[in-house]
């Protein structure tokens, strides 16, 4: 079912998909930057979990997909406000038993930090190619390989996405990324964590996931040889199965 939530005057649009069961766990999964809840990864994850008796909650972040907001105003902190509103809504659903959180790329960073903030609510965490390197990138002035002045940050930096569209990444994203406490916040989450990263990820390095593994004692890192940032260069199904197995074991 489609769900619309209000967050600080913005409408967030998402879907709740559940199996035919009176009670079941649910995975809240966050998409990456310049993407949406309707991408192929989200679709395959929710379909696989549905077969395993697990519900899914997938929403478009502000400035993405069908949700309100201007993309150039998007920041990780703004996405965290979205994530908190979504999590609070999911807590009210009468069929939900356990709550799992997951995310891809920048959505993985949001997932890790919101899980640290809500460590008493979240049962398990899944990070797919989490973009934790965005902090170091912002400090040295690197936007997906495109250099910029990290002190005098431009108003926006145009970026060509996989869908062929050009997105303007706003100055505030990079200014806030420079000091963002990614690992410090994520480390507050003490539950089981699965991290999957492709060895050929040219968008965000494997080092970001290795940092999570170092800071989170209950984290397991799996590096898939030959896979890219989308984890679909060889077979996205491998990642989907690993996620489904982790959440149902």
Please explain how this structure is put together:
The protein is α/β, with parallel strands linked by helices and 249 residues long. The protein has one domain (2-136, 183-248): Rossmann fold, CATH 3.40.50.1820. It is built from eight helices and twelve strands. It has helices at 40-51, 76-91, 106-117, 134-140, 171-177, 182-186, 206-215, 236-248; strands spanning 2-7, 10-17, 24-30, 55-59, 96-104, 122-128, 142-143, 146-147, 156-160, 166-170, 192-198, 219-224. Helix 2 (76-91) packs across helix 3. The longest helix is centred in the middle third of the chain and has 16 residues, at 76-91.
TL;DR?
Helix content is 33%, strand content 28%. It has 249 residues and is α/β, with parallel strands linked by helices.
Count structural domains: 1
Q: What is the CATH topology?
A: Rossmann fold
CATH superfamily: Alpha/Beta hydrolase fold, catalytic domain
Q: In total, how many beta strands?
A: 12
Topology:
Blueprint: E1 2-7, E2 10-17, E3 24-30, H1 40-51, E4 55-59, H2 76-91, E5 96-104, H3 106-117, E6 122-128, H4 134-140, E7 142-143, E8 146-147, E9 156-160, E10 166-170, H5 171-177, H6 182-186, E11 192-198, H7 206-215, E12 219-224, H8 236-248
Parallel strand pairs: 3-4, 3-5, 5-6, 6-11, 11-12
Antiparallel strand pairs: 1-2, 2-4, 7-8, 9-10
């Amino acid at each position: 079912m489609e769900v619309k939530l209000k967050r600080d005057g913005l409408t967030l649009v998402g879907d709740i998909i559940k199996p035919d069961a009176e009670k079941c766990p649910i995975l809240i999964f966050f998409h990456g930057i310049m993407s949406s809840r309707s991408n192929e990864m989200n679709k395959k994850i929710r379909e696989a979990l549905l077969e395993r008796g697990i519900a899914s909650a997938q929403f478009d972040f502000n400035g993405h997909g069908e949700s309100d907001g201007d993309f150039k105003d998007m920041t990780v902190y703004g996405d965290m406000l979205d994530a908190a509103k979504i999590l609070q809504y999911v807590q009210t659903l009468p069929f939900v038993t356990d709550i799992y959180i997951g995310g891809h790329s920048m959505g993985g960073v949001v997932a890790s930090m919101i899980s640290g903030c809500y460590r008493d609510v979240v049962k398990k965490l899944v990070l797919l190619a989490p973009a934790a390197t965005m902090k170091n990138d912002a400090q040295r002035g690197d936007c997906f390989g495109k250099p910029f002045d990290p002190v005098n940050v431009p108003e926006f930096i145009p970026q060509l996405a996989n869908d062929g569209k050009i997105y303007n990444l706003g100055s505030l994203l990079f200014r806030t990324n420079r000091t963002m406490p990614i690992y410090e916040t994520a480390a507050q989450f003490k539950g089981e964590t699965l991290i999957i990263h492709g060895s050929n990820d040219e968008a965000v390095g494997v080092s970001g996931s290795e940092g999570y593994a170092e800071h989170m004692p209950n984290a397991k890192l799996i590096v898939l040889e030959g896979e890219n940032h989308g984890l679909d260069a060889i077979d996205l199904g491998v990642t989907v199965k690993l996620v489904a197995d982790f959440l149902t074991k």
